[in-house]
Amino acid sequence: MNMSSTVNNDEREAIPNENIFFIELGFGNDSHGQSATKAAVRACRNAIEFNSIPSIKRLIPDGRGYDALKLDVLLAVPPKYRGELDLEEVRKVFPYGHVRFELQDGGMIAPSGIAIETLGDKNDDMVVVCASVTVGY
What we know:
With 137 residues, this protein is an alpha+beta fold. 19% of the residues lie in helices and 34% in strands.
């Protein structure tokens, strides 16, 4: 069973290993509302929020800078909530670069112990998404 798929809006291959600067990991949770999108946004923010690459123009050949950056984002999402994932919303997390998504079954569904209708809960599931963000050119 294939548990991984590529969503490749810019029709490019994965970043070659020799062009990778770093790989960061993060996770995000939606405790109420069961939104895989909200959990994925939080996972991606968690992965990149403590990074800065001020010397990028020196690192990328020809001084192309931030416009030449490529980001390969692997998201592990619970299959039950994967269909509701809005990748365009997740893409907004990244301030620059050409983003390529790959999705795989994963993450977690954990009980919150309570469903609060006013918070959008359909049940007591907490949706957890894991993210791996590879940055390179």
